[in-house]
Amino acid sequence: MKAQIFDITHTTTYNYGSPVTVAHHLLRLAPRRLRRQLRLAHELDLKPEPASLSRHTDYFGNEVAFAIFEGAHRQMRVTARSRVAVGAAFIPDATETPAWESVRNLCRTDLSTPVLEAGEFAFGSPLVLLDAPFNDYARESFPPGRRILDAVLDLTARIHQDFKFDPTATTVATPLAQVLEQRRGVCQDFAHLQIACLRSLGLAARYVSGYLETAPPPGQTKLVGADASHAWVSFFCPGLGWIDADPTNNLLPSMQHITLGWGRDYSDVSPIRGVLGGGDEHTFSVAVDVVARGESDDEAQVKAARVT
Amino acid sequence: MTTLNTELSTQPRPHTGAAWDELRLASGAIRPNWQPLMASLDALGRDEFAIRVENSRRILREHGVSCFSSDSSGEREVRWELDCIPFVISAPDWRELEVGLVQRARLLNCVLGDLFGVQRLVRDGFVPAPLLHANPGYLRACQAVRVSGGNYLQVYAADVARGPDGRWCVLADRTQAPAGFGFVLENRSVLSRVLGEVLQAVRPRSLSEILPICREALRRLAPSATDNPAIALLTPGPRNESYFEHAYLARLLGFTLVEGGDLTVRDRRVFLKTLDGLRPVDVVLRRVSDAFCDPLALRGDSLLGVPGLVEAARAGQVSVANALGSGLVECPAFLPFLSGLSTHLLGEELKLPSVATWWCGQLRERKHVEAHLDELFLRPAFSTGGPQAGPGELTSESRAEWLARLSERPHEFVGQEQVQLSLAPVGNHQSRPVILRFFVVSNGRDYFALPGGLARMTEQSALGTTTLALSGVSKDLWVLPDDSERTVPPSFVSTPAPALERLASDLPSRTVENLFWLGRYTERLEQILRLCRSAMGHLADESANGQPEALAELLVHLGLAAPPEAGRVASERLQKELMAVLYEDTRSPGVRELLDRIHIASFSVRDRLSADTWRILNRLSFDAKLQPGHLPLVLAGSVLNTLVHDLAALSGMEMENMTRGHGWVFLDLGRRIERSVAVARLLEAALRCSGRRELLLEPLLEISDSVITYRRRYFAEPRLAGVLDLLLLDPTNPRSLAFQLAVLGSHAASLPAGPNPEGVAQFQQSLAALPGKLNCVRAEALDAGADIPATVEWLGGFALELGSLSDLLTHVYFSHVVPRVS
Questions:
Q1: Taking a C-beta distance cutoff of 8 angstroms, is the pair A64, A111 a contact?
Q2: CB-CB contact of B476 with B188 (8 Å)
C-alpha cells in the first residue's frame, strides 16, 4: 500500500503544587491499529517510574495503559513515542452513498453486527447531550433524500465557516449548547458539535482522537490543531463503513491524520485521565511532535521501518 | 374494655374503591391469615398496646435508627418510623411470592451475565440495543469484567404491590445495592421486644437464617482460596439515607465498614488503609451505586468511590457484590421484556409479573402510550431523574410537550399502568395503601428469599412519582409458617469454620481519627459543662460577693465570653453569657456546636460503638435539646447536671466496655490531650485574673471535680499553692496534668509504627520531655505571688505544645488526601 510514515512524540508534563502521594492514571496514547494504519513501534516513557503498569483493551477497542504511581512526587512526565504508517482513506463518490434517511432507518432496525455496533453511536453521551437545537442547525444540510456524504460534507463546511477557532473561548468543561450559541471553540468542540448534529438526526457518529503532521513539507499549508492532539468525527454509512470528517479543517481526513482511538465523545478517549491523592493545584503542558519520514509504496519498506 | 378488633369493626368502612383490602373480606370479616394476629392484639387491649407502641418508639430512638431524606429544603435526618401492627402474608401467598422472587433474581442474574458478556440477547432481539446503548446506567468500563461464579446479584430486592384482583405485581427491581435489609432485621428485633407474646402466638417465619447465608456466600466470592477472606462493606458515608443500616449490617455480619477513602488500589489489588499500613481486601460488599464506585473508570465527579476498583475487578483480584454495572437491569425500560426473557432463558413463564409497562422505543408501544396519555404514568425509561407525569395530570400544554418528547426521543420514556395499591391497617384504625419490599440473597448456587421484608405505607398519588426511597411509615412483614410442608432453607455442606483471629488491624485510619476527635470533643464538652455549672452555682448564691465578677473575667480569659460592657451588673452579664454558651446554635465554643461535632464523629464510627454507648450518645443529644422555659436558670442547672451525668456514663462505657485496641487508645489519647490542654488553660486564665484570685479557687476545684480530694487532704479553705499542686502535680489525681501525661506516655509507647515511623518517634520523644518540664513548677513559691507572670507564660506555652502534639499525631496517622480527578 502507499503509506506515509510518521514519528510521533507526545509529551505531557504535570507539575503539582504539593506532593502527590499516590496517583492512578489511564493512558490512551497508543495509536490504534487499523487496516490502513500500521503501528510500527510504540513505547511509553513514564517519570517517575510507576509502581505498576498494565495494559488492556477498552470497550471501544482502544489500547489502555493503567499506571499506578506511589511515593511522593511533584512532577509527572508521560512521553509516548510511536511510529505509524498511514495509508489513504477510502472516500466513495457521494453519489454512491445512500440517502441519509435510509441510513437512519437502518440504524434503528438492523441487528447485523456492523450496524448494531454502529447504532451505539446514535444516542446522546456524557459530553454530547442532545439538549439544544442541534437538529435545527443540522437540518439545513439534510434536506429529504440527500446523499449522506453530500450532506455531511455540507455540514462540515458550514461548521468550518460559521464557527471561529478560538482556544480562549472554551474549556473541557464548556457545555456543547454554549458552543452552539457563541459559535467559537476548538477542534474538540467542533467534533462534539458535529456529532451532536448527526445524532440529533438519528445518525451514528463517533469521536476520533489523534494527531496531525506538525510541520508539513514546503508548499503545503499547516493544518489547524497540529501542535497538540487533534480530534475529528467519523460517521457510519452501511455497506461502506465509517468515514472520517474534520470540521476544524473542512476536509475528509486521509494521509495527514493519525488515529489514536475513538469513542462516543472525548470522555471515552481522553489521552490521560488520572485520580490524584494530594497535589492541590497543578499545571500541565503538552508537546506534540509529528514528523513525516516520507512516503513509501513498498510493503517491505514499510515493514523495515518497524525497527526502532 | 374496647378491643382493637371491635374498634376496627365499628369504624365506618374506609372508602377503598376497587383496592384490595388486606385485612378484610368483602363481607367485612377479618381474613383468616390476619385472625391470629388481630386476636392476640385484641388480647393485649388498647391501653397496653399504646404502651407497647411507646416502647417501640423509645427503643428506635435509643438505637438511633434514622435515615436521611433529601427534599427541596436540603438534607435532613429523619427518625425511622415503625408501625406496630405487622403486615401478614399467608403461607399460600408466600409460596407464590417466594418462587416468583427467586425466579426473578435468577432471571436478572442471567440477563446481566449475557449483557456484560457476549450479548446474544441483543443480537437475537430479546433485548433492544437502545436499552444498553442509550442507557446511562450501562457501564461500558465493566463490560467483559469477569464475575466470580457468574454471580452478578448477591442481593436482589423487589418492590411489590397487590392489585385489586389480589394478584401480586412487581413495580420495580433493585439490583445494584438494595437498601432496607438492615431495617427489616431492626424492625423484627424491636417487635420481638415489645410484642413478644404476639410473636409467640402468630409464629411468623424466622429471619435468622439469612445472615449466615449472606456471610458464607460473600466469603465464597473471594477471588483466591483463603480460609478467612477480608470483606469490607463500602458505604457512601454518614450522609447517605441508609447509613444506619450499613453500620448495622457491618456489625451483624462482622465486616469492616469502609468509605471510599479507606480503600486504595495498589498493583491492581484493593487494600484497606489501617494504622498498621495496607491490608488486602478480597470482597467488597458495596452500598455505593454503580457509577460512583470508581472515579477513574466511571464518574469522575464521584468522591465516594475507589480509584482503580474496576481495574482490580478486571484483574480478578477483588470481587464486588453486587457486581459493578448490575444496576443496568433495574430501570423501567427492562420491565416489558422480562416475560419474554424468562421463557427464552429459563424456559419458564414469568411467575411474578411486572407492572404493565410500554417502552416507547418501539413504534407500536409508543402509539399505545400516545393514545392513553391520560391514563398512564409517563416516566423516564432509564434514570429516575427527568420529567414524569401521573395519570390525569396533563394540561393541554404539557400534553403537547410530552408528544414532542415522545416523537424526538421515544426510547427515553415509558408509559406505565397505574396500579391500585392494596390497603393495610395502620395503628390509628385506618387503612393506607401499601408497597412491599422483598429481599432475595444468593447462597452461591441458588437464590433464597427472605421470609419477611418491609411494608411501607404510602399514598396512592405518590406511586410512580417517588423513587420509592425509604420514606414513610414501615411495617414488619410476617410470613405465616407453612405447617404442611415445612420448607427448609438451603444450607451449606460442611464448610470449615473460619479460624478465630483477633483482627485489631482491620480498623480503617479514618475510623481511628473519628474516635480520636470523639475523645477530644466529649472531653471539651465536659469541661464547658462543668465550667458553666460551677459559674451557675455561684450566681445563684446571693451572699457571694465579688465572685460573679471574678468568674466573668475567667470566662473572658477562656474565650467563652465577650469582654465586659460598661454599666452592666456582673451577675446579669454572666447569666446572659452562660445561657448563650448553653443554648445558642452559632456560639463557638458552645454546647450545641460541640454536640454537633460529637454527633458527626460518633455517627461515622457507629459500627464500632456498642448499642449501649450509642444509646447514651442519643440520650445526650436528646437531653441537650430541652429548651429554656420560664425559669431558665433553674432548668439550665438541671440540664447541666443531666448532661454531665450522660458524659460520665459515656466515659464509663468507654473504660469498661471497649477492647483495648488501637481504637480505644486513640479515643483515650484524644480525651487525655484535651483534658491536659483544658487544665493548663484553666489555670492560666485563673492566674491572669486581675481581681481577687482566691475567689476562683473553689470554682477551680469544682470544675476539676477535685473538691472532696482537696478538703480531705488539707481540711482548710483552698489556697492557691494547694490547688495548683493538686491540679498540676499530683500524680494520683485523675484530673491533674501529671496524671494525664503519665497516661499519654503509656499510650504513646503502644502506638503502631504506621506509615510514618519517624513521625511516631518524634511524637513519642516530644511527649516524653513534658513530665520533666512539669517538675520545674514549684507550687509553694506561687503563694507569695512572685512567680505568677512566669507561671502564666509557662502554662500558656505548655497548652500550645500539647496542641501541636495533637497536630503532629493527626498528621502522622491521618494525613488523608482527598483524591481529585485530573
A1: no
A2: yes
What's A72's DSSP letter? E
Query: Which range of residues forms the domain containing residue B790?
Result: 509-814
| Range(s) within chain A of domains with CATH label 2.60.40.2250 | 3-86+270-304
Q: Any CB–CB contact under 8 A between A114 and chain B?
A: no
Q: Does A36 touch chain B (CB under 8 A)?
A: no
Integer CA distances (angstroms), A194 to A158, B268, B667, B689, B794, in order: 10, 38, 59, 76, 72
Q: Given the C-alpha cell 408501544, which residue does it identify?
A: B365
| Contact assessment for residue A260 and residue A29, using Cβ atoms and an 8 Å cutoff | yes
Which residue does chain B place closest to A124, by CA atoms?
B134
CATH number of A89-253: 3.10.620.30
Q: Report the residue from B134, B141, B265 with minimal CB separation from A24.
A: B265
- In chain A, CATH 3.10.620.30 covers 89-253
Kindly state whether A91 is in contact with chain B, defined as any CB-CB distance less than 8 angstroms. no
- Can you give the pLDDT of all 308 residues of chain A as single tens digits? 688 999 999 999 999 988 888 899 999 999 999 999 999 999 999 999 999 999 999 999 999 999 999 888 899 999 999 999 999 999 999 999 999 999 988 877 777 777 888 989 999 999 999 877 999 999 999 999 999 999 999 999 999 999 999 989 888 888 999 999 999 999 999 999 999 999 999 999 999 999 998 777 777 777 766 677 899 999 999 889 999 999 999 999 988 899 999 999 999 999 999 988 776 778 888 889 998 888 876 666 666 665 44
- B750 Cα to chain A: minimum distance (Å): 27
Residues of chain B found within 8 Å of residue A274, distances taken between Cβ atoms: 296, 821-822
Question: What interhelical angle do B757-774 and B737-749 show, nearest 10?
Answer: 150
CB-CB neighbors (< 8 A) of B817 in chain A: 21-22, 277-279
How many residues are there in chain A?
Answer: 308
Q: Is the ipTM of this complex over 0.85?
A: yes
Band (B60; pLDDT cuts 50, 70, 90) = confident
Residue B67 lies in a domain: yes
Radius of gyration of chain B, Cα coordinates, nearest whole angstrom = 31
Indicate the number of domains in chain B.
2
Q: Tell me whether residue B197 is in a domain.
A: no
Query: Is B182 within the bounds of a domain?
Result: no
Domain boundary among B24, B53, B82: B82
CA distance linking residue B99 with residue B91, whole number of Å: 12
pTM: 0.82
Q: Does B561 map to a domain?
A: yes
Chain B positions in Cβ-Cβ contact with residue A119 (cut-off 8 Å): 129-130, 133
A176 vs A196: CA distance, rounded Å:
9
Decide: helix, strand or coil at residue A77.
strand
Name the DSSP letter for residue B292.
Answer: G
Class of the domain covering A3-86+270-304: mainly beta
Closest chain B CA to residue A270: B822
| Residue A90 Cα, gap to closest chain B Cα (Å) | 28
Strand partners, B280: B271
How many Cβ pairs within 8 Å bridge chains A and B? 87
